Request: fold
Amino acid sequence: MHSPSAQVNGKIGPLMDIASLMYPHVTRTPAEYEKMYPPRQLEPEAMVTRFAPSPTGFVHLGGVYASLISKRLAEQSGGVFYLRIEDTDKKREVAGGRDEIITTLKNFDVSPTEGYVDVDTEKGNYGPYIQSQRLEIYDTYAKYLVEKGYAYPCFCSEEELAEIAAAQERQGVKKKGYYGQWARDRHLTPEEVKAKLDQGQKFVLRVKAPENPGKVRVPDLIKGPIELEANFVDMVLIKSNGIPTYHFAHVVDDHLMRTTHVTRGEEWLSTAPLHLQLFEMFGFEIPVYLHFSHIGKMEGNSVRKLSKRKDPEAAMSFYTEVGYPTDAVSEYLLNLANSNFYDWRKQNPTAPHTEFKINPKKIGKSIALFDHKKLDDMSKDVIARMTATEVYDQVYEWANTFKPEFAEILSRDKAYAIKVFNVEREKTPPRKDFVTWSQTYDATWYFFDELFEAKENEPLTLPDGLSADDAKAVLNYYQGEYDETEDKEAWTERGRNLAEKLGFARDLKTYKADPDAFKGHVGHLMSVVRLALTRSSTTPDLHEIMQVMGKERVSRRISAATHQIL
Ligand code: GLU
Reply:
């Protein structure tokens, strides 16, 4: 810290006087806060990162993306990932917004270990972790800036500011804004300021930006150090209601919470020069920045940011409702962050994705396109790697919220439901048709008698070219002679023999060689059994389905189907 006073020759300087008038309630000094929030005792390479959302009631995919990267960077370096709620913009705040953020982070496995670790648990020595409870801290640091002559109160009304902007417009001033000669209140004498304060006039706190400051380099790990024009505008630091702007709160909070790496969206890059200026004025160590590119989408021929208004995929609630596994979303986002994730996954097909090390330097510098198909493909792979019990647990959890009647059925006979989800799961390559949990209902409903019953009495529409007599013959056969203990090979062989007996080819090849010689092939014939058992024309392996359903269910359904053949 710079030496904390403007005391001259033992007399209180005019700036000190003004600062005290502006912040009469401040009792602490920055030095005291420095002591309360000392540097963290971590290894030198440890990264302290954070997610700092506003509780707007909407968690954007970009937020979970940023959290995932921030959490991983902290974890893989032995650091800390914390959550700070930035609720200074009361107009944007939504009731329950804070809890929604915490719950979403939890659902997507990116919960912090410090800050709001749960809805009613704030943890850590660097809090409060919600900005509305830090006003005293901000005032203390604001007072300090006034004392040092780095900030001043501005009493301009909206109308006066509009006049300044209009004058700049009229005169064709290139650099617009409240600065230098345009900054009326920057030039008030201490006596004038005092007089206004004594009258109780409202003010905002503005930074006294250097004139013609030149260029500044923003230390950015993703984009490389970026040279930008330094800030020359006397930006507002504290609003007239005493609430800090993002800029001021960012600097004070990230310093006091000892953030080493500020991970945030690239929309903040343009104001980073102001932030660096403030860090310097305070004498704080400057953190490293990671400005993430946005996640975007093609619209016609151009790319645009994923929009909360237009794109359902922008909201995390979409992934929860549709039922993408958390791991699928994580893997997709990891791949978006570091495109080598894909190769890593190929080389480490069974490793948990938490073992993948994020390389911040490999994070894309430009907008990352959201690719729904890729997400779906990755989701299929993730689900294919799960055990049937894992699938059951996650489907059940999803259904509990979004399809309770399915959850109820799944819980009635858990062992049976797990067998259902195990169909074609243990073969190589395993079943890969599930993309989301919401699809599992359509893919498995027929296994469950409660759901099947409604269809059981509907007429059975036979596949083209199959006569009712042949259909009945094959159903009769399976009803009477289905042997549960038969393995796939023996079962197939028996099916082929039956086909032959009824005038069908025993396999497709034979049929194709001379189609006129047969009524059809074994597949045609067996489709009746499939229909009888599932009322669906495409299903996983029929032998396995019969095994899971068990002899009793198979013969019951086949018997019922026999009566539905017209
Ligand atoms: N509250 C800011 C936002 O929601 C946070 C930006 C940051 O991470 O510093 O955009």
About this structure: Confidence is low (pLDDT under 50) at residues 1-11. The first strand starts at residue 48 and ends at 51. The two ends are 90 Å apart (CA to CA). The pocket of glutamic acid is lined by residues 52-54, 86, 250, 264, 268 (CB under 6 Å).
